[in-house]
Amino acid sequence: MAPSLDDGNSLFNFVVQNGNGVKGMVDLGLSKVPAPYIQPTMERIDKKNARICARAPIDLSKLDGPEHHHVVKEIARAAETLGFFQVVNHGVPVELLESLKDSAHSFFGQSPEKKAVYRKGVSPSPLVKYGTSFVPEKEKALEWKDYISMVYTDDAEALQQWPKECKEEALEYLRTSLHMVRKLIEVLFENLGVKLNESEIDSFIGFKMVNMNYYPTCPNPELTVGVGRHSDIGTLTILLQDGIGGLYVKVEEDTADFGKKGEWMEIPPIPGALVINVGDTLQILSNGRYKSAEHRVRTTSSKSRVSIPIFTMPKPTARIGPLPQLAEREGSRFRELIFQDYMNNFFGNAHDGKKSLDFAKAI
Question: Whole-model pTM?
């Protein structure tokens, strides 16, 4: 039964509890944004006043040539300041990226009943979760987003448990991205004077998850957000944007090349490029040298948008803290903790910028 768009409880049950999602609500026909999705003024994204990041993508193929040192410095500079950069010649076939976007639209284009089987609490697999917003039960204003989240254990289980509409493309995306992820971690710590072995890199990315995010068209984009202000909790996030755009990153400190502290920069989609962003775990491991990026997503009235991140992070049972080589030189800026505790804190609260990082700061 269709909900009353003016009744918050009825709408919440329809969208969240019954698994219709934002797309199910939009498909009813909307002329205006329902009240539960209207963001406070300070959380809205002013597209006209945001700068566009004009920085060219980094060519990762040059890491294997005479420009290696220069490219490492370029990667490190972005990780130390904005926490975001784009890469090309990354080893993931461009044809796969196009197929990946198509498969996301294929999944979200299904009837609500077919997607809702993967809702939390009823999903046939603990590896797969379909949902909407972030923590809808705790948010003052809901996010204009539906998603499917797929945890990776091994190839066979992924092919068995992930949704058939997107599992092969999502798995190949993960497989072909991992060499790049390992190389980026290696060179980022090389820049800090730390030589990592294979098992150490493995421990930083022991838990891997592919998400597909779907942002339906919105009648009043200026009143909503697709994703609220937050930083990712993992080590590195690999993100495929479609051509519509809408990703905004907050400048952490005054820099000549990125702008003034507190400004929001739009990360424009570049054909064939992938977006890399630093997560909280890398900020902790690097003892604060690399900055996790506070970011958010704007909605659009013109066309539904998809984005597909790979989250790499330590296993929940792993202990994380500043690497000893860095802590000995500089003193620890963060305490050592079990990653599961950090995850529980992050997923137990609504998005609120980089506040989750306070949980790990040294006392």
Answer: 0.94
